[in-house]
Design a protein that fits this description.
The protein is of the alpha/beta class. It contains eleven helices and nine strands. The chain has two domains: 2-174, HUPs (Rossmann fold, 3-Layer(aba) Sandwich), CATH 3.40.50.620; 187-276, Pantoate-beta-alanine ligase, C-terminal domain (Pantoate--beta-alanine Ligase, Chain: A,domain 2, 2-Layer Sandwich), CATH 3.30.1300.10. The chain has helices at residues 7-19, 35-47, 65-70, 75-84, 95-99, 117-121, 125-140, 152-164, 194-199, 202-213, 219-231; strands spanning 2-4, 24-29, 50-55, 89-91, 144-148, 170-174, 236-245, 261-269, 272-280. Bound molecules: pantoate (PAF). Pantoate (PAF) binds at residues 28-30, 58, 61, 129, 132-133, 151, 154.
């Protein structure tokens, strides 16, 4: 695997591949890689000639300096994992290489997608994500880019950015990768204590129950039930639960035919934030 930290070196290398008519697949990450990331890389390898993975902990998408500081950094292990799946290129730029002298976000209009769910609780988060992903797309100029559906709102926002800014990249959403106990894979999971690890799969159990209830109960009844599940939970605190339209990401009260809905949830295990979502059947 080739490893670059400078934009210019990466661009030169990709230019040579492009002149051989090779297609480039891109998987942006913040490192602390896990099987979920590897599933994105495998998907990218199946559909492209060359796969580039970026590893960059983006400061502008964190709304708390403490959270940024505590974000897991496991670069040695990440390189071993990428080598083990025969990734072609790793791009690990410094903050200066991406932001030069101006560590700030562009102000995006994602047609309201940014005001829902995560946007309400993590101020400026999606401006930070949009800024770094747009910058990385400009550097890598991939044919296709791969994102996990665990961050479903992020995925929809990146698709919107590509559409609104006429970027020449196809954005692909890939299914959530779960542990055998149902917990959605996340880089943050390594920070969970033994007790928190044991409790965390409850989030997916609740979502599965929501999926069943969605056939017969109102959204209000389901929401009250979910709130009840976490009310006296010894380890997990509910931040939000909502049922939203997949396209607009707006919360709904009643379902309409032919629309796709998803249940979204965010919980805290102490200061560690876990998010998950599940597509619902609209019968
Ligand atoms: O999902 C992530 O890991 C990050 O938000 C991303 C897309 C790599 C941007 O920093």
């Amino acid at each position: 695997m080739k490893i670059f930290s400078k934009k210019k070196d990466l661009k030169d290398c990709l230019l040579a591949h492009r002149s051989d008519n090779k297609t480039v697949g891109f998987v942006p990450t913040m490192g602390a890689l896990h099987s979920g990331h590897l599933s994105l890389i495998k998907e990218a390898q199946q559909k492209n000639d060359i796969v580039v993975v970026s590893l960059f902990v983006n400061p502008t998408q964190f709304d708390s300096a403490e959270d940024l500081k505590k974000y897991p950094k496991t670069i040695k292990n990440d390189i071993e994992l990428l080598d083990s799946v025969s990734c072609d290129i790793l791009f690990t730029p410094s903050v200066e290489e991406i932001y030069e002298n101006n560590i700030s976000s562009e102000n995006f209009n994602f047609d309201g997608l940014e005001h829902q769910m995560e946007g309400k609780f993590r101020k400026g988060h999606f401006n930070g994500v949009g800024t770094v992903v747009k910058t990385l797309f400009k550097i890598v100029a991939p044919h296709k880019a791969y994102f996990g559906q665990k961050d479903f709102q992020q995925l929809q926002i990146i698709k919107k950015m590509v559409e609104k800014h006429s970027l020449k990249v196809e954005v692909k959403g890939c299914p959530i990768f779960r542990q055998p106990d149902g917990l959605a894979m996340s880089s943050r999971n390594v920070r969970l204590s033994k007790k928190q690890k044991a409790a965390a799969p409850f989030v997916y159990k609740v979502l599965q129950e929501v999926r069943i209830k969605f056939n017969t109960q109102s959204v209000l009844e389901i929401t009250q039930w979910v709130e009840g599940q976490f009310k006296n939970h010894p380890t997990l605190q509910l931040e939000y639960f909502t049922v939203a339209d997949e396209k607009s990401l707006e919360s709904i009260e009643t379902k309409e035919g032919f629309k796709k809905y998803r249940a979204f949830i965010a919980v805290f295990a102490d200061e560690i934030r876990l998010i998950d979502n599940l597509q619902l059947e609209n019968l």
